[in-house]
Write a structure and sequence with these properties.
heterodimer, A: 331 residues, alpha/beta, nine-stranded mixed beta sheet, 11 strands, B: 311 residues, Vcp-like ATPase, Chain A, domain 2, Rossmann fold, eight-stranded mixed beta sheet, 14 strands, tRNA (Adenine(58)-N(1))-methyltransferase non-catalytic subunit TRM6 (chain A), methyltransferase (chain B), TRM61_C (chain B), EC 2.1.1.220 (chain B)
Chain lengths: 331, 311
């Protein structure tokens, strides 16, 4: 019928007319049958503007592994527990393809910064940030910095500024678009001087630039200095493949005193050991491990009940507040 | 409370000053909001704490009483505020609050309408989400509660982003001045279906509404009323399960496990003592987690809907 050019509605009517069992169904059942056939033969597509919640839901349904099985309610809890607000400086470890970074940036609204940091040398991909369709203003608030960048004492600040601008020029002259960022971290404490670093910039692939919106630029010297002086106002970690304690002990001193943090993990045990270690060293208080539970309902006259399908696990979150007692560990 | 005020931003350089609101943390389930006053003292079962000792210290510090007991002083956040505020009504907790803010798609600059204000738990988080360029207009029919809420918002420093009105939204609907201006609306009313026609007028195209109701009958009536002009109607339930942890030392003889298990642990301990002289041997103990015995079974149903776009 489709080949003959019949519309979806006509096909559905024909199916109903030819169905042997349709007459015998209850009215509820008939409605359900019709909806099912309509979905298949007369699909309606709605275009919506992208937002953190719809992007998260879409990925969780289609490709949850890409976002570390981060469910919508878990993501929303991370944003609340991480006290994300305009003018904050939020430190994030984002191994969810950029979903967390994007969600934080959305709530910052272009003010403050979301600093995307990585454990080790290679930065994590942030492709999902592009899907948010952010304005230039918001894009500028998304920056990258390695842990060493933020913690090192930069005595050669002037030299580093020159290097920064040299590297930026290199990047702007290349117009490649690559899907993953692999810009090498420039070690500020390097003593080898300018020549080495410019060589590196020549060899390293360009950071991804989609149209005119540059996301994930390296944090400027000024910003790094600001973070060192004031600390980050909060931290959110989504690193489902790593053991949290191994890097949280290094990142926590970067947070301001009394700054909240939230760490997500797919598994409970690593968070339990992390919580214990934090407690023993008195690095944080108000520690809590939470597991969100979400259930959707079908609400129809005489047919109201929870949906038959449900997500079994949205992961676990360790949340807490940094104390000021370890003042000596501030670098 | 919000970092939009630079003097209130959480930072290494910020110290407790006279007039600041601090959260006194005794235990994770025992906290209190206190306004710092040069000549005041804070009393609890650990002793008396002089406020003057607090002034000049950074937030997050441990402070001591005259008897040697201690507490921590934390900077207020909407999450901590929800746990310490005085309950004039039943309040929303972090699980519902965070989900609502995400689904209402609130970002800085949004205009939100809320009714009822209640104790202002959700309102404080809404203010954080829309500050500094947005605004929350919240309404409660109870004049006394509205006044208490206004006081709270002053104390927490969010009053420039929140306007409290006394109004019966079920009977009168939202004020006409907001027609077509609201990005999102939140309803926590006994009969939300009475407010839905007014909500429809207030919302921008594709604006989002959320209704929180403890009872399923309320949800059913609300959804019926929503179907006329709203689409994408979805109802959820969200709960938070918390876990407690404990360290289990391999050398302790507790547990009702079989005898063979006990002797294996004993052997391990012997081996370890011979091997190393370290005090805290990681192999000797594991950290275990289990769900808390006390759990919340239900708070309410959250129903979300988008205003239909007229083509």
């Amino acid at each position: 019928m489709r080949r003959q050019g019949a519309t979806g509605e006509e096909i559905v009517e024909a199916l109903i007319a030819n169905s042997a069992t349709f007459e015998k169904k209850t009215s509820f059942s008939q409605e359900k049958y019709k909806l099912k056939k309509q979905k298949k033969y007369a699909p309606k597509v709605l275009l919506r503007r992208p937002f953190a919640r719809s992007i998260c839901e879409a990925y969780f349904k289609k490709n949850p592994a890409r976002i570390g099985f981060l469910r919508v309610d878990t993501l929303s809890l991370l944003l609340s527990m991480g006290n994300v607000a305009a003018n904050s400086d939020v430190l994030v470890v984002d191994m969810a393809g950029g979903l967390l970074t994007g969600a934080v940036a959305e709530r910052l609204g272009g003010t403050g910064y979301v600093c995307n940091t990585c454990i080790g040398d290679s930065p994590y991909p942030m492709d999902i940030v592009r899907i948010f369709n952010f304005s230039n203003e918001i894009c500028k608030s998304i920056v990258r910095a390695s842990v060493s960048d933020v913690t090192s004492q930069s005595e050669t600040s002037e030299q580093s500024d020159q290097l920064e601008s040299a590297c930026n020029m290199e990047i702007q002259s290349n117009e490649q678009k690559s899907s993953s960022v692999s810009m090498e971290d420039i070690s500020l404490s390097s003593e080898n001087g300018v020549s080495d670093l410019i060589l590196e910039a020549n060899h390293s692939p360009v950071n991804k630039i989609s149209k005119s919106h540059k996301v994930g630029e390296k944090a400027s010297q000024e910003t790094l200095k600001l973070w060192k002086e004031n600390g980050f106002s909060s931290m959110i970690v989504v690193a489902p493949e790593l053991d949290p304690w191994s890097f949280v002990k290094d990142l926590l001193p970067l947070l301001s005193y009394s700054a909240p943090f939230a760490i997500y993990h797919q598994y409970l045990q690593p968070l339990a050991t992390c919580m214990h270690s934090l407690q023993v060293r008195k690095m944080a208080i108000g520690l809590q491990i939470s597991e969100p539970w979400l259930r959707e309902y079908q609400v129809l006259p005489s047919r109201t009940h929870p949906c038959m399908q449900m997500s079994g696990c949205g992961g676990y979150i360790l949340s807490g507040t940094r104390t000021a007692t370890n003042a000596s560990s501030q670098q | 409370m919000l970092p939009t005020d630079p003097t209130k931003k959480i930072s290494f350089t910020r110290c407790i000053k006279e007039g600041d609101l601090v959260i006194v943390y005794e235990r994770h389930d025992c906290m209190k909001a206190v306004k710092v006053c040069q000549n005041s003292a804070f009393q609890n079962r650990f002793g008396a704490f002089k406020h003057s000792d607090w002034i000049g210290k950074p937030f997050g510090s441990m402070v001591f009483s005259n008897k040697g007991g201690f507490v921590y002083l934390l900077a207020p956040t909407p999450e901590l505020w929800t746990l310490v505020l005085s309950h004039r009504t039943q309040i929303l907790y972090i699980a519902d609050i965070s989900f609502v803010i995400m689904y209402l798609e609130l970002v800085p600059g949004c205009l939100v309408l809320e009714s009822g204000t209640g104790s202002g738990s959700l309102t404080t988080s809404l203010a954080r989400a829309v500050a500094p360029t947005g605004h929350v207009y919240t309404f409660d029919f109870h004049e006394q509660r509205a006044a208490s809420a206004r006081e709270d918002f002053e104390r927490t420093g969010v009053s420039s982003f929140v306007t409290v009105g006394v109004r019966d939204i079920q009977g009168q609907g939202f004020p006409d001045e907001f027609s077509g201006l609201a990005d999102s609306i939140f309803l926590d009313l006994p009969q939300p279906w009475l407010a839905i026609p007014s909500a429809k007028k207030m919302l921008k195209q594709d604006g989002i509404l959320c209704s929180f109701s403890p009872c399923i009958e309320q949800v059913q009536r609300s959804c019926e009323s929503l179907r006329l002009n709203f689409t994408d109607i979805r109802t959820f339930e969200i709960l938070l399960r918390t876990y407690e942890i404990r360290q289990w030392r391999a050398d302790c003889t507790q547990g009702t496990g079989g005898g063979s298990a006990g002797s294996i642990r004993h052997k391990r301990k012997q081996h370890l003592i011979e091997g190393s002289g370290e005090q805290e041997n990681p192999n000797n103990s594991t950290v275990m987690a289990r769900p808390n015995g006390e759990a919340r079974g239900h708070t309410g149903y959250l129903t979300f809907a988008r205003l239909k776009c007229l083509s």
